[in-house]
């Protein structure tokens, strides 16, 4: 007897769930959400507006007080850097530069 797997969720639903996970209070869920989003960008074609929302989530994680969440954000950015639009990569680099010059504390 073979088991049939459920059909995968459409990209929009997977992105929405993963974006919601990136704002969860639990650092492990935050990391999983970010990793899932990076995998979506690497494996699939993503609209630029969706890509920007994902990149914004990575930027937020760079400001997180949890070291592992920040490290995962760096890894995700590294994984998607060659696949995202120049405008989104520039946005990430600009925000990262601003944080280096004038760091802000985020207590997520």
Give a brief rundown of this model.
With about 110 residues, this protein is mostly helical.
Give an overview of the whole structure:
The protein has five helices and no strands. Helix 2 packs parallel to helix 4 and helix 3 runs parallel beside helix 5. Helices cover 68% and strands 0% of the residues. It is globular. The N and C termini lie far apart (47 Å).
The backbone outline, from C-alpha atoms, is globular
- Determine the strand fraction and express it as a percent band: under 5%
Task: Give me the Rg, rounded.
Answer: 15 Å
Query: How many β-strands, per DSSP?
Result: 0
The CATH class: Mainly Alpha
Fold-level CATH name: Leucine-rich Repeat Variant
Architecture, according to CATH? Alpha Horseshoe
State the helicity in percent bands: 55-70%
Number of self-contained structural domains = 1
Q: Quote the average pLDDT.
A: 91
By secondary-structure content and strand pairing, the structural class works out as mainly alpha
Distance separating the two termini:
47 Å
Low-confidence parts lasting 5 or more residues at pLDDT below 50? none
Give the topology, please.
Layout: H1 11-21, H2 27-43, H3 48-62, H4 67-80, H5 86-101
Helix pairs in contact: 1-2, 2-3, 2-4, 3-4, 3-5
Keywords:
108 residues, mainly alpha, Leucine-rich Repeat Variant, 5 helices, 68% helix, 0% strand
